[in-house]
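User: What would this chain look like folded?
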Amino acid sequence: MNLWENLKMALSSIFANKLRSLLTMIGIIIGICAVITITTLGTTLRSTITTTLNSLGSNLMSASATPRSESYYDSADIEWTYDDQIPYSMVEELMEKHPEIRVADENPVGGGYLKNSLDKQVNINLVGAYNGTLDQNGSRILAGRNISMQDVSDKKYTCIVSSIFVRQYFKNNEDPIGQTIKITNNDNGLAYEFTIVGVFNYNSLINGMLGNEENATTPIYIPNSIAREFQQQYGEERAFYWVLSYDPKTDGKAAKKIVREFFDAKYAANKNFKVAIYSNQDTMKIIDVVINVITVFVAVIASISLIVGGVGVMNIMLVSVTERTREIGIRKALGAKKSTIKLQFVTEAMIMCLIGGLIGLALGLFNGFLAGVIANLIVSNIPTAKQVLGTITMVPSPLAIVISIIFSMLTGVFFGYYPASKAAKMNPIDALRYD
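Assistant: Here's the prediction, encoded as structure tokens.
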């Protein structure tokens, strides 16, 4: 008997007892449905978090002056000193040696305003910036250029403004690049003139949107050296913590290695402190591992129902073998081999589990789709969540789908083997006499 005949006989037997077959499949359906639903939710959660972190800047890393030993925190003899902090001159040297590395820190100065050509007030926030600050905000230059390290070093009164600000302030479709704007500081009432050197896209996902676009308050980035003067901060800039970024074309591991080796050499003589480097990619890896562990753990628990379903399949197959004893006897009397009989019943169990697996797969995907609809309805009613998460798209796991289908078929083979063996071992004379 060939495979096609086995398949036809298996399907004929299953559809001859539709209700019994469906009830037998329930455990398989529930198990596969639960696994697909859980893995879909896990994959979607990972995708959503990754997208959100990427919008924050996947090419970010931090350089933090950290005690070399945990016992340092318990020591009363050693104190954090000014010299232990990372000076800006050291960071500047790093960028000179490795142009692909940028400073992504930002330094909020305070609010301010301007008057546009219609004498309407345009509110802004002044922010001290470096050449990589836009990386931290998930923004990019649309026209002109970015704040340069030369602007910072030379304390130039340059600035970059958002695309929203351009629409608010320039009502006559003027080219903003090279234009001088006068910003009045809310704190001291003084007005400062800055030359616009670039326009960036405003990322409302990160910065939020205070009011509608017409009345929105958006940031204007100025060189941080000017920002520090506004804050009456003079002398060399030092910090225990610097946010850095690297060119997206540069490999993240290579960039991290460059920064680590640079600071290791600079802090080699410091007995108490070292500089720890931590990147957003490290965060993504940790989150990915946690989500994978939770997803697998819950999926394994859910798959227990597959075992229950498999026991049900074995039970029904034993009943089927008993019901078809005379049929088995006739076939063996006509010359059917043990392997043929065994293959017939294993095929039937496998097809039954496969059908249950496909039904469970369809239900699992539907549950994932339904969960996506509900999640988007909830998110759309929470403005903050909408800004951060955007639209949630359900992402089924192809690997989980393939494994689930294979596993359902293997369940049929495993739990169908004993009834099939029992059928194959029947004595044809005893089977023919069975009533």
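Residues 168 and 214 are 6 Å apart (CA to CA). If you want, I can go into more detail on any region.
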